[in-house]
Amino acid sequence: MAERSDSPSPEERKRLDAEAKAKEEAEQATLPYKWTQTIKDVDVVVPIAGNYKGRDLDVKLSKQALKVSIKGQEPIIDGQLPHTIHVDESTWTLETVPSGKEIAIHLDKVNQMEWWPHVVTSAPKIDTSKITPEDSKLGDLDGETRSMVEKMMFDQRQKEMGKPTSDEQKKMDILK
């Protein structure tokens, strides 16, 4: 009798991933808004009827919460954010689109090194381990981050060649 391992085969893993993705997409499709994110920010779009004006809306952005509603109605979004935002850098606008109007909300993340699993903690989560970030160029990074990434890349190349990393090299120089 052949031994069966606990880890799924590549085909099984692919099927499970596809099922998880389909479930996630179905959950996200039930939300009354659509959202996207980059490592730096989150954008939320809430479709509403075309007869509403800005004064009919009640949109509140705070460091750790988001509330979006049409005055006199149940909130469309009302909950805690999974992480803090820069309130002064975050905005919302009411835009006219072919299907009516939409509330466009831009949330500026405080920690620009993490993906959000959801917009508000009461919403279904997405699998953040499956996010493939957009390619960025070293030139897009600020000086400090760029030098850190360049050092990591250098150290990685040194390791692959069996040579000392920059830190190991520094220690050897000091010992000399």
What does this structure look like?
By secondary structure, this protein is an alpha+beta fold. The protein folds into 2 domains: 117 residues, Immunoglobulin-like; 42 residues, no CATH class. Helix content is 27%, strand content 25%. The chain contains 3 helices and 7 strands. The strands form 2 sheets. A 4-stranded antiparallel sheet has the order 1-2-7-6, with no helix packed on it. The protein has a 3-stranded antiparallel sheet with strand order 3-4-5, with no helix packed on it. The longest helix has 20 residues. The chain is extended and about 75 Å long. The mean pLDDT is 87.
List the helices and strands and how they pair.
Layout: H1 10-29, E1 34-37, E2 41-48, E3 57-62, E4 65-70, E5 77-80, E6 91-97, E7 100-108, H2 143-160, H3 166-175
Total domain modules: 2
Q: What are the segments in which pLDDT stays under 50 over at least 5 consecutive residues?
A: none
- Tally of contiguous helical segments: 3
- Terminal Cα span: 61 Å
- Overall 3D geometry? extended
